[in-house]
Amino acid sequence: DIDDVGHKYYLELVLEDVLDKDSTVNCTAEVLYHLGSKNVAPDVQFTLEGELKNTDEADNVFYNQIKSLEKELVAENIPDSHGNVSPEMEPIRRLAWVASGYVIWQNSTENTKFHLAQIKRVKQVKRSDEYLEFDYMVLLHEMVSQEIIPWQMTVLWHPQHGVQVTQDSRQPKHASE
Amino acid sequence: MKILLVFTALVAAAGTEQLFRGDQVLRITASNEEQITLLRVLGEQAELQIDFWRDLTGPGHPADLWVPFPSLQAVKIFLEFHSISYSVMIEDVQALLDEEKKNMTRSRRIQRSISTFDFASYHTLEEIYDWMDMLVDDHPNLVSKIQIGQSYENRPLYVLKFSTGGSNRPAIWLDTGIHSREWITQATGVWTANKIVKEYGQDPSVTAILDSMDIFFEIITNPDGFVFTHSSNRLWRKTRSINAGSSCVGVDPNRNWDAGFGGSGSSSDPCSETYRGPYAHSESEVKAIVDFIRSHGNVKSVISIHSYSQMLLFPYGYKRTPAAHHQELNELAKKAVSDLAAMYGTKYAYGSVADTIYLADGTTVDWAYDNGVKYSFTFELRDTGRYGFLLPSTQIIPTATETWPALLDIMVHVLEHPY
């Protein structure tokens, strides 16, 4: 507890490579949830004790694959109902995972626990520069309320410049059916 | 969904003889009342033979329009002329019918016997109900099927009874699928029911348990929700009961039990995923279990299986006060979780619901515990969020396999600690 400021958490984490369980990096972090305000993202400071793996090769393969598509990429329901993700869609999914991580961070409080549940729809947006742009509609699952929240995200990516969420907005829940 | 019903009718009537080649289904969204009127007039032109599959309800609400091939051009010109926005939902109705027929024939050929049931994939309600009948047919001296009630939409609520005889023996209750989107649970339920049958007479613990106790297993605890996850919304959680005065459907069946009902761990809003319902046991799916356990009178353990989070939990969820048997339940959970992890290294947290996950009132295990069922546990199966509810089917068998020793630990403890 930090009087008049908020609650600070000290964390020790182990980061594990999704593609290689034996590749881990230790990490320490401090997270400060601000008192009262629901519109302010928590402050996060972190230190990596080691280096993250170099992904240049895989990044370039993905980049070139998308660049060489004749028509803009469009896809739905990733994963599908059975949890399947086709190999071509794996990088699209990981990109959504990273981008939704940003959205989740911006919208988290001490009483929320968000996960990316599914990509409902993704559409590539044509650009004249070297960036890749994707318009995502994702479903976020919030654990405490158990709600499924549709969220739109516009995501930019470039192998050397990384990920950017340039626009995001929470969508109304459809009165289902 | 209405589309499926119409398809079935069409298929039955026409024998799918290319009658719908080139027909399309258009999704139309009128943006004002004037466009609605125009569309109604369009629908009334008999010679066009168009049909609203999903009706015009108002501006901004999509309507689905089936347009036979000969009328397509005229209809599209009409829509474009009046700037009515539309998209092509089904490009060729005949192609879709052909595809569906192919898929249905293929899976019907596959489910011929119990030994060819594919435990490593997710199944429909019908497939699981059929499999249950096959299990009973193959093991009539061990398994029987009872119906404990009906769902809101009048589907039967089936429970498998595993018993080697006796009369009203002390019993263990297991349920999966109370939250329909948690598909790994129904799938684990099927595998586990099969495992119980396989191990009786082979595994000493299972044999000991069934020689003096009965097991009751409800695999599809929320059939209406389950069907809905297949037909319309894969992430549907609640029942499908209509809520008076609300356009939102469904009650959270795990907030509907009469234990701390109506507190801060549930919602009074019908549109909420944790809506508790108008009153405790309002849901027929819940009432059926309440009535069954009450009238049985000798249930010694209730194990309710959910996903996801990888946790083993026990009462209470509606209050932070520890349960009277907290220590014993905690020790048992610790052992079960350790044996689960021993299989593939999957880590589970454990503790009371309130301490470990969040405050939740009106839950199954709290009701069971407060009604004399000491060994009441909730499992939250794989994973911890990477796939969440959409757990790949490749993880079904590993999940069921690792959960089995934990279930067995609890059941053995119940056997060895009669009360």
From TrEMBL, chain A:
> InterPro entries annotated for this entry?
CYSTATIN_LXN, Cystatin_sf, Latexin
- Which keywords appear in this protein's UniProt record, sorted alphabetically? Protease inhibitor, Repeat
Instruction: Give one GO term, molecular function aspect.
Output: metalloendopeptidase inhibitor activity
Say yes or no: keyword Repeat present.
Answer: yes
Every copy of the Cystatin LXN-type domain together lies at: 1-54, 74-177
Which family is annotated? Answer: Belongs to the protease inhibitor I47 (latexin) family.
What's the name of the protein? LXN protein
In its UniProt entry, the species of origin is given as Nycticryphes semicollaris
UniProtKB/TrEMBL annotation, chain B:
Q: What Pfam families does the record tag this protein with?
A: Peptidase_M14, Propep_M14
Co-factor requirement: Zn(2+)
Query: What biological-process GO terms show up in the record?
Result: proteolysis
Tell me where the transmembrane regions lie: none
Annotated Peptidase M14 domain ranges read 121-414
GO CC annotation terms, alphabetical: extracellular space
List GO molecular-function terms, semicolon-separated: metallocarboxypeptidase activity; zinc ion binding
By sequence similarity, the record places it as follows: Belongs to the peptidase M14 family.
The protein, known as: CBPA1 Carboxypeptidase
Native source species: Nycticryphes semicollaris
Give the taxonomic lineage as stored in the record: Eukaryota, Metazoa, Chordata, Craniata, Vertebrata
Encoding gene (name): Cpa1_0
